[in-house]
């Protein structure tokens, strides 16, 4: 419930930011570089759409922050041009940018998993499973609880972080190494010789 409330809060903030951005995008027609803004929006849209389509053929999280960065940069660049054409002060941009920088830094520090280290463990094992067509996480019942300690208030928080679950980690890394393998939500394939189970991988 706490996670859902937090995600809803982030959604509300995102919607507010989008509405604020849109008020400046509407002023683009009056800009002397209007067609440059059109170019930026087109590049952002084509990239985002292409990324979404590629998600159907590869095991990637197409809406992740890192993959969407190229599209977001185009939109932010367009916004910044319009912002400084209509607003004299840059204090708001500095405050919001600093807030997000601190938030994202803390958000990433809380889960310091080493992706490359885990990938180096999984990659040698994938060679013997090259004939597998499907991938299924059969370790969903094995829950790893992450303990976060807050020294100032001397309290601990136990949280089953998604990125620290063994089965989920193996599934993500195996899908990265072999993008052609298809993830299964349910274990419904009758020919089990075609399925790679995460329990077969050692991490």
TrEMBL record:
Keywords annotated in UniProt: Membrane, Transmembrane, Transmembrane helix
Residues passing through the membrane, by range: 5-22, 34-53, 65-86, 92-109
Protein's name in the database: Uncharacterized protein
Source taxonomy: Bacteria, Pseudomonadati, Bacteroidota, Flavobacteriia, Flavobacteriales
């Amino acid at each position: 419930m706490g996670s859902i409330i937090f995600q809803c809060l982030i959604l509300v903030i995102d919607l507010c930011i989008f509405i604020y951005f849109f008020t400046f995008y509407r002023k683009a027609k009056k800009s002397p570089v209007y067609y440059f803004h059109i170019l930026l929006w087109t590049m952002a849209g084509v990239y985002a759409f292409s990324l979404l389509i590629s998600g159907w053929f590869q095991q990637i999280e197409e809406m992740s922050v890192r993959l969407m960065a190229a599209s977001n940069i185009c939109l932010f660049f367009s916004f910044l041009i319009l912002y400084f054409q209509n607003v004299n002060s840059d204090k708001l941009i500095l405050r919001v940018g600093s807030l997000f920088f601190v938030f994202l830094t803390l958000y990433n520090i809380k889960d310091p998993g080493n992706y490359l280290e885990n990938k180096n463990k999984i990659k040698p094992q994938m060679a013997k499973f090259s004939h597998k067509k499907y991938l299924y996480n059969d370790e969903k019942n094995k829950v790893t609880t992450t303990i976060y300690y807050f020294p100032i208030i001397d309290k601990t928080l136990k949280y089953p972080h998604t990125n620290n679950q063994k089965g989920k980690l193996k599934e993500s890394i195996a899908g990265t190494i072999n993008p052609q393998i298809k993830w299964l939500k349910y274990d419904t394939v009758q020919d089990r010789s075609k399925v790679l189970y995460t329990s077969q991988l050692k991490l």
